[in-house]
Amino acid sequence: MTLNGWLQIFAFCGVLILLVKPLGAYMTRVFSGENTWLSPLLKPVERRLYALAGTSSDEEQHWGGYALAMLAFNLAGFLLLYGILRFQNILPFNPAGMASVAPDLSFNTAISFVANTNWQSYGGESTMSYFSQMAGLGVQNFVSAATGMAIAIGLIRAFARSSGKAIGNFWVDMTRATLYVLLPICIVLTIVYVALGVPQTLGPYVTASTLEGAQQTIAVGPVASQLAIKMLGTNGGGFFNANSAHPFENPDSLSNMIQMLSIFAIGAAFTNVFGRMVGNQRQGWAILSAMGILFLAGVAIVYWAEASGNPIMQSLGLSGGNMEGKEVRFGVVLSSLFAVITTAASCGAVNAMHGSFTALGGLVPLINMQLGEIIVGGVGAGFYGIIMFIIIAIFVAGLMVGRTPEYLGKKIEAKEMKMAVLAILCLPLAMLVFTAIASILPSAVASVGTGGPHGFSEILYAYTSAAANNGSAFGGLSANTSWYNTTIGMAMLMGRFLVIIPALAIAGSLAAKKTVPTSAGTLPTDGGLFVGLLVGSILIIGGLTFLPSLALGPIVEHFMMAAGQTF
Question: What is the pTM of this model?
Answer without folding.
Answer: 0.91
